[in-house]
Design a protein that fits this description.
The complex is a heterodimer of chains A (436) and B (226).
Chain A: H1 2-14, H2 17-54, E1 59-66, E2 72-73, E3 80-81, H3 82-89, E4 94-112, E5 116-121, E6 124-128, H4 131-135, E7 140-143, E8 152-155, H5 157-160, E9 174-179, E10 184-193, E11 210-213, H6 214-217, E12 235-236, E13 238-243, H7 249-261, H8 266-270, E14 276-281, H9 282-325, H10 327-335, H11 340-383, H12 399-425, H13 429-434
Parallel strand pairs in A: 6-11, 8-10
Antiparallel strand pairs in A: 1-2, 1-13, 1-14, 3-12, 4-5, 4-6, 4-9, 4-13, 7-10, 8-11, 9-10
Chain B: E1 4-17, E2 20-33, E3 37-41, H1 48-55, E4 63-68, E5 71-72, H2 78-88, E6 89-92, H3 104-113, H4 119-132, H5 148-160, E7 166-170, H6 178-193, E8 197-202, E9 213-218, E10 221-222
Parallel strand pairs in B: 3-8, 3-9, 6-7, 7-8
Antiparallel strand pairs in B: 1-2, 1-4, 4-5, 9-10
The chains are: A alpha+beta (436), B alpha/beta (226).
């Protein structure tokens, strides 16, 4: 008989389709929010765990920009000299330092046959030292590291394929790099980078497509802020550094900032007054990601709770309306033998079905919505620390939350339906039958 | 004694309206034999509806005893009252009171739902009753798709579904035209001939001719005339 009354409840709802749907919306939004917040949270947690494995947790970027609680790199000034690199290298908590010079390229050329040339628009090239790879946990898939002073470069998989996937550049090939100052330099490809899940801190500067030695590719008298350099000293936009171990990351950061701000550094002389020195550690990035996620989590949780509450009120409201509207039918059912319990069940089932439907539809909506939330998170992460990018967060669903959310939907339906259903069950049949 | 299907003794029903008590029924004593077709008549406020509600187990007496088909309804619980109502009473209303969201067949089967049993049995019984009231082809129609006369036939079939001993018809022709009303009354007469006890509450003196007994009510008391 329970199932019979359930079927009756379903039939009643079928005849109030629009009303049922409108009532569902509140529950759908609430449950969808729960799904989104848990999916986003889970996705980020697994992302962060993955990053700790892939990142070199002792790595950091030294540059100029705006300091404070949320430091941002600006990447505009060329201020760090070779002297600074050496001084920082000698700080007690520093294991390695790798300068990074940006070499903008106009074109990448390749000889195709005897007189034919193939040309591609230039990538951004980074001039650095072999330490760059260790600091960022980048590995070579094939070939070897370049040697300082030689016309050798290592390239990423993407760059290897710029002349076509069918004829990728190979170790040993020679390419020609035309810098923005018009000078063309030959380069022998000596190594190809393994694809990495994270594009590391260099990401937002442009994926490290080509990495070259400082000599002969990099010099300071071209590039953005060359005018501020008085002498022909080699200077860099950013430095990458590695602390001696994970416990000394904070120390290393403090030591670097102390040195740079002391006035004894070359960088403090060349630096624009409006800019601060900024040291961003890999650890900081992960902390920031979690902070961003927590803010989003708080907001979505608030939305979830409010919508679930509104959803519950909506259900209660509509159930009261339905009960009042069907007063005479309730009286009739009582007259033909319905017990109070039957009437109670009939209306509880209806609100429960609304809750269940809302829960299920909310799960579907939440599952799709999670893609947008994670996309939003990925965008926020791209902006973290200005020039710093990391990998992308993948959507990872937590199946148990779909179950929990559906149950929450049902519970809300039942809770919201209790008062209206009691009102129906407590009706005096004589009065209910007289109701117009 | 056992020939009586309804035995009412010194029944009083008092309603509180504000601070004054209103006696809707004042020491009514009435016995109705099995197989009777009784018209209960009287002006508005005479107490006939209240009497009807108490016989129909929708309401309880303030004092006095009411025995319906052997069950003393003054002393039973709400649930038992609902059970008695479902088993022993078939209601026919002026406004048909079909459940708007259910088909004709499901409406007829509804009283059986509240008493249990399998769906197959119920649907079979409902289909039989649908045939009895001549609406076999209308099984899957919703009440809104039926005429008033057809709706009242469905309501009569519904009243019969639990094979009750008493049928209470409250102005069953009140919302129908004369011709259709006549047909409904003939259907009730036919049921009476099959042995059902029928109580008809009405204003319409013209319906007296279908009945074999008339109970007149005035000011909460019975003034019976043969």
């Amino acid at each position: 008989m329970i199932t019979d009354i359930f079927v009756m409840a379903l039939a009643a709802m079928k005849s109030y389709k629009v009303r049922t749907f409108l009532t569902l919306i509140g529950v759908i939004i609430g449950v969808a929010s729960v799904i989104m917040v848990t999916t986003a949270g889970g996705s980020v947690s697994s992302f962060v765990a993955e990053q700790f494995n892939v990142f070199n947790p002792t790595g950091m970027v030294i540059g100029t920009g705006t300091g404070g609680d949320t430091p941002q790199l600006s990447m505009r000034s060329v201020v760090f000299t070779t002297n600074d690199v050496e001084k920082i290298q000698n700080l007690p908590s520093i294991k390695a330092v790798a300068p990074v010079g940006i070499v903008p390229l106009n074109k990448i050329l390749k000889r195709d046959g005897f007189l034919k040339w193939e040309s591609r628009p230039g990538e951004t090239m980074y001039a650095s030292t072999p330490d760059l790879l260790t600091i960022f946990n980048l590995d070579l898939e094939e070939g070897t590291m370049f040697e300082e002073g030689k016309n050798e470069v290592i390239i990423s998989k993407n760059v290897a394929e710029i002349f076509g996937q069918d004829k990728p550049l190979q170790v040993g090939d020679t390419i020609y790099l035309r810098r923005v100052d018009g000078k063309t330099l030959t380069a022998k490809v000596v190594g190809i980078l393994k694809e990495s899940k994270t594009t590391t801190m260099l990401g937002a500067m442009g994926n490290p497509g080509i990495i070259c030695p400082i000599k002969p590719y990099y010099s300071t008298y071209f590039g953005s802020n060359a005018g501020t350099i008085l002498k022909r000293v080699v200077a860099y936009t950013v430095l990458l550094a590695e602390a001696t171990d994970t416990k000394h990351v904070q120390d290393a950061q403090n030591q670097i900032l102390k040195y740079l701000d002391s006035g004894g550094s070359d960088a403090s002389k060349y630096k624009d007054q409006s800019l601060d020195f900024v040291v961003i550690t890999q650890q900081y990035i992960l902390v920031r990601i979690e902070q961003v996620v927590n803010v989003i989590r708080v907001y979505i949780t608030a939305i979830a709770l409010i919508s679930l509450l509104i959803g519950a009120i909506g259900i209660a409201n509509i159930m009261f309306a339905t009960v009042t509207e069907r007063t005479r039918e309730i009286g009739t059912m009582m007259a033909i033998g319905a017990k109070r319990r039957d009437i109670l069940q009939l209306f509880l089932y209806q609100s429960m079905i609304i809750g269940l439907l809302g829960g299920l539809l909310g799960c579907i909506t939440g599952a799709s919505g999670s893609w947008f939330v994670v996309d939003l998170l990925n965008r926020s992460i791209q902006n973290l620390g200005g020039a710093i990018a990391t990998g992308t967060i993948n959507v990872i669903y937590a199946p148990e939350w779909f179950l929990i959310a559906s149950i929450v939907g049902i519970l809300i339906g039942v809770a919201a339906g209790v008062l209206p259903a009691r009102k129906a069950a407590k009706m005096d049949p004589v009065e209910a039958l007289r109701y117009e | 004694m056992k020939d009586y299907v309804i035995e009412i003794d010194s029944l009083t029903k008092t309603y509180q309206t504000g601070k004054t008590d209103f006696k809707a029924l004042n020491t009514v004593t009435l016995k109705i034999k099995k197989g009777d077709f009784v018209a209960i008549m009287g002006p508005s406020g005479s107490g006939k509806s209240t009497l009807m509600n108490i016989i129909g187990c929708l309401d309880r007496p303030t004092s006095g005893t009411v025995i319906i088909d052997g069950e003393n309804i003054s002393t039973v619980s709400d649930n038992e009252l609902a059970e008695i109502r479902g088993r022993k009473i078939g209601f026919i209303f002026q406004k048909f009171n079909l459940v708007s969201t259910m088909t004709a067949l499901k409406n007829i089967a509804l009283p059986m739902v509240f008493l249990g049993g399998t769906r197959a049995d119920r649907d079979q019984r409902a289909a039989e009753l649908l045939g009895k009231v001549g609406l076999t082809n209308w099984a899957t129609h919703l009440p809104s798709e039926l005429s008033g006369g057809q709706q009242q036939r469905i309501a009569i079939a519904r009243a019969l579904s639990n094979n009750p001993s008493i049928i209470l018809a409250d102005e069953p022709t009140g919302n129908l035209d004369t011709k259709t009303g006549e047909q409904i009354m003939k259907l009730l007469v036919a049921l009476n001939k099959e042995g059902k006890t029928i109580l008809l509450v009405t204003h319409a003196i013209a319906l007296k001719r279908f009945t074999n007994r008339v109970v007149n009510m005035l000011d909460g008391k019975i003034s019976e005339k043969k």
